[in-house]
Every structure is written in structure tokens, then in C-alpha cells.
Design goal:
The chain is of the alpha/beta class and 443 residues long. Helix content is 46%, strand content 14%. It has 3 domains: 3-49, Transferase, Pyrimidine Nucleoside Phosphorylase, Chain A, domain 3 (Up-down Bundle), CATH 1.20.970.10; 72-330 and 433-437, Nucleoside phosphorylase/phosphoribosyltransferase catalytic domain (Pyrimidine Nucleoside Phosphorylase, Chain A, domain 2); 335-423, Aldehyde Oxidoreductase, domain 3 (Alpha-Beta Complex). A 4-stranded mixed β-sheet has the order 1-4-5-13, with helices on both faces.
């Protein structure tokens, strides 16, 4: 079989056969198909799409390209469940959700990715914690999930290796936005993780890969339908990503905000709504709760009681990080040498933010990747980020910049100013959670 024939078929809007997809997955796994040919097929799929059957075959093929975890022999006394976000700017929900769900009796084997395009990566962020083993062997991963209730790791070579290579190539070839490829990438890892249930956070807006509700709904329905073919019960929340989620964007700065949230010191409103909504849905998708209000009350108590913070501390220590991280996080996280506020050129109300541009500004600071494998500066980013509807003046900055140099800080300041629109009029409030979709209630 010639791979150029497969590329040509999809280039010409044809449908790939099961054998052709299996051939592609095998070539991804053993690297027998070169990167330039992989990127060519990715672009053809991005432009011409895939049928539901094609996407399902690709998903299951990548899921079975490596180890598939089975938790049935671990005698766990709760469901195995996870969440996945389609990516956003300032999205640190994973670090909150995993310990909250664990505190509620769930087991969360979270296998995350690195930064993709303008969005930050959970794996990159967790590596800010010194000693934390983001790429452990499966024995340690299983042990921590069973003993603590949650573990956040990066995608290993053993788990869906075909997707791991495909994911990295898509990141640098402008083929991230394809609905069938996003679906296959997400679900291949989740199916391989042996889950009982999955909750999707499908972002909508300027900082999302799906800028419109229509496209986000299409992706959510694709994921829910494809997951159903594999017997994985999946719910999806459509959530707003028209501005940064939370008060920070970067790597170490997001870990710091996550700790403050878990310590119940500061829970930014939009971040809190998304986190509570997703955690509650995890209890519903696994039937641990049947009423959404009861589920919301239960997950909130996990934070206010301090139980979720304890779970995060236990996870960090078990994965090789500091034993007292939640209490001493400030002494462990990297700090940028240049920290200074950026102010708007005028005064008024922040009316609109181009979240995509904020994500790109982090890349320019060195906190995200231009090329595959590029090393990150984990200390850089933004804190004290202003939110839409807030008053901006000489006392209220748009953000505080954390940079490696004065020159980088000045460039970031220009990018932030350009990304923000200031108006004299008041700005109406916007919903954070747009819709909740299930297999019975697809949009």
C-alpha cells in the first residue's frame, strides 16, 4: 500500500477504508511514515473532513496502538472518570478538578498533553513543580491513582503512541482545528486510559479552537457519538473562552493560582463556575449523584473543607514533588526576573479581549512553543489579568507581566494592549457555561 495514494484519496475528498486507516496508524506508531507525509494527510483531513466511521476507526486504532489500561483488578471503591478540555488560555481546571473529584470518591487517571498552538499544556504546567514525575511508568501511575485517587501525567510512549506523534505534528502544521482529528486525539487517550466515564469541556470563543457555538456543538456531538461506539459514557459542557480563564496565564503562575483556589483563598468567578460545573458533571456521568444541585454542593464542600487541597498535596508528593507543596508552593515555583504591570493607553471599561492574542503573547515570552520540542521558560506569563466588564485606569492594569527581560516585557505589553478593547459604556455579563450535552441531549 502506497501512502501517497492515501493522501491523494483524502485530498480529493474520498473516504479512507479501514485498511488504509490501520496502515496510517501503524506508520505513525513505528515512524515508518515520514513527518511530511503525515502532515500532508493531516492537512487533507483538515480541509475535507472525515466521516463518522472514519473518525471512529482512527480513534480506536490509535487507542489500541499501545497499552490499554484495565482497572478492574485494582478493586477500586469508586468510578474511574476523567475530564478533557479542548484547550484555552489560562485553563488550569485540571489541577483543581482532579483532586476535587478524588475528594468526592472518584479515581482520576488524568493523562494530559503539552501546549498545542496558542493554548497552554497541562503537562508543561505540572512540570513547574520540582521533582514531579510527569512521565512515570505505569506501575507508579496505577499506584498513585489507587492510593490518592488522582494522578496527572503526560502522555507516555506506551499509551496511544500513534496519537502522541500525530499530536506533535499537528501542533506545528496548522491542522489543530479539525473536528475529526480533535475527536480521535482526545478519545484515543481516554479510551486507552480505561475510563468508566468522561466529561468534556468544549471551549467556545476567541481563545478557543472552536470560535463559534455551532462549531463547538459539532465537536461535542462528534466526541459524544464516537465515545458511545466504544462504550464510554460522555457528557460535554460548552464553556466560554472569550477571555482568559482565571487571573493568570502561563505555566508556573497558573500552578500558583490553582493552589490558592484549592486553599479556598481566591476562586475567580469564571474559573470557579467552570470548575464546579465540570466536577459536578463527573459525579453525574458516573451516577455518583443524580441531582445536579446536590453534585454542585458536594464538590464545593470538597474545596471548602480542605479535602481537595490535601488530595493535591498527596498527589504531588507521591509523584516525586515536595511533600508540603500546598503550604510552601511560592518557594518551589520558578520566578521571572522581570515583573511589571502593563496599563492601557486610555481609561474606561474592558469591553473585549482577544484571548487567542494573549495566548500568542505567552508564546512570544517563551512560555509556549514555536517549533516541535522547543524548551519553555516556565516562569513567564501574566498575572492579575483584568476581566471583561472591569474598569481600567491608571490604578488598574490590564495585567502584570512576568518576563525574562525588559525587552520581552515591553513586547508583551504591546501585544496585550492590542488584544484589549476599552469602551466608555458598561458591558453586559456573559454566561460562562453555555450548554450541557449528553448522549440523549445532543445539540
Amino acid at each position: 500500500m502506497l501512502f501517497t495514494d492515501i493522501i491523494s484519496r483524502k485530498r480529493d475528498s474520498g473516504e479512507l477504508s479501514a485498511d488504509e486507516i490501520d496502515f496510517f496508524v501503524a506508520g505513525l506508531s513505528d515512524s515508518s511514515i515520514p513527518a511530511e507525509q503525515v502532515s500532508a494527510l493531516a492537512m487533507a483531513i483538515c480541509l475535507n473532513g472525515m466521516s463518522f466511521e472514519e473518525a471512529a476507526r482512527l480513534t480506536l486504532g490509535m487507542a489500541n496502538s499501545g497499552t490499554v489500561l484495565d482497572w478492574s483488578g485494582e478493586n477500586l471503591d469508586g468510578p474511574v472518570v476523567d475530564k478533557h478540555s479542548t484547550g484555552g488560555v489560562g485553563d488550569k481546571v485540571s489541577f483543581l478538578l482532579a483532586p476535587i473529584a478524588a475528594a468526592c470518591g472518584c479515581f482520576v487517571p488524568m493523562i494530559s498533553g503539552r501546549g498545542l498552538g496558542h493554548t497552554g499544556g497541562t503537562t508543561d504546567k505540572i512540570e513547574c513543580i520540582p521533582g514531579y514525575q510527569s512521565m512515570p511508568d505505569f506501575d507508579l501511575f496505577r499506584k498513585v491513582v489507587k492510593s490518592v485517587g488522582c494522578a496527572i501525567i503526560g502522555q507516555t510512549n506506551e499509551l496511544a503512541p500513534a496519537d502522541k506523534r500525530f499530536y506533535a505534528i499537528r501542533d506545528v502544521t496548522s491542522t489543530v482545528e479539525s473536528v475529526p482529528l480533535i475527536t480521535a486525539s482526545i478519545l484515543s487517550k481516554k479510551i486507552a486510559a480505561g475510563l468508566d466515564g468522561l466529561v468534556m469541556d468544549v471551549k467556545v470563543g476567541s481563545g478557543a479552537f472552536m470560535p463559534t457555538t455551532e462549531r463547538a456543538t459539532k465537536l461535542a456531538n462528534s466526541i459524544i457519538g464516537t465515545a458511545a461506539t466504544a462504550g464510554l459514557n460522555t457528557h460535554a459542557l460548552l464553556t466560554d473562552m472569550n477571555e482568559v480563564l482565571g487571573d493568570t496565564a502561563g505555566n508556573a503562575v497558573e500552578i500558583a493560582e490553582s493552589v490558592r483556589y484549592l486553599r479556598n483563598e481566591h476562586r475567580e468567578s469564571r474559573l470557579d463556575q467552570v470548575t464546579m460545573g465540570l466536577c459536578a458533571e463527573m459525579l453525574l456521568v458516573t451516577a455518583m449523584e443524580t441531582n445536579r444541585n446536590d453534585a454542585l454542593a458536594r464538590v464545593d464542600t470538597a474545596v471548602t473543607s480542605g479535602h481537595a487541597a490535601e488530595k493535591f498535596d498527596q498527589m504531588v508528593a507521591a509523584m516525586g514533588g515536595p511533600a508540603d507543596f500546598v503550604d510552601t508552593y511560592e518557594s518551589h515555583l520558578p520566578v521571572a526576573p522581570v515583573i511589571r504591570p502593563v496599563f492601557a493607553e486610555g481609561t474606561g471599561v474592558l469591553a473585549k479581549v482577544d484571548a487567542h492574542a494573549i495566548g500568542n503573547a505567552i508564546i512570544e515570552l517563551g512560555g509556549g512553543r514555536h517549533t516541535l520540542g522547543e524548551e519553555l521558560d516556565l516562569a513567564v506569563g501574566f498575572t492579575d489579568i483584568a476581566h471583561v466588564g472591569e474598569t481600567i485606569d491608571a490604578e488598574a492594569p490590564l495585567a502584570t507581566i512576568h518576563a525574562a527581560s525588559d525587552e520581552q516585557a515591553e513586547e508583551a505589553a504591546m501585544l496585550i494592549r492590542a488584544a484589549c478593547d476599552i469602551t466608555e459604556a458598561s458591558v453586559p455579563a456573559r454566561d460562562v457555561i453555555y450548554e450541557i450535552l449528553t448522549a440523549d441531549q445532543k445539540g
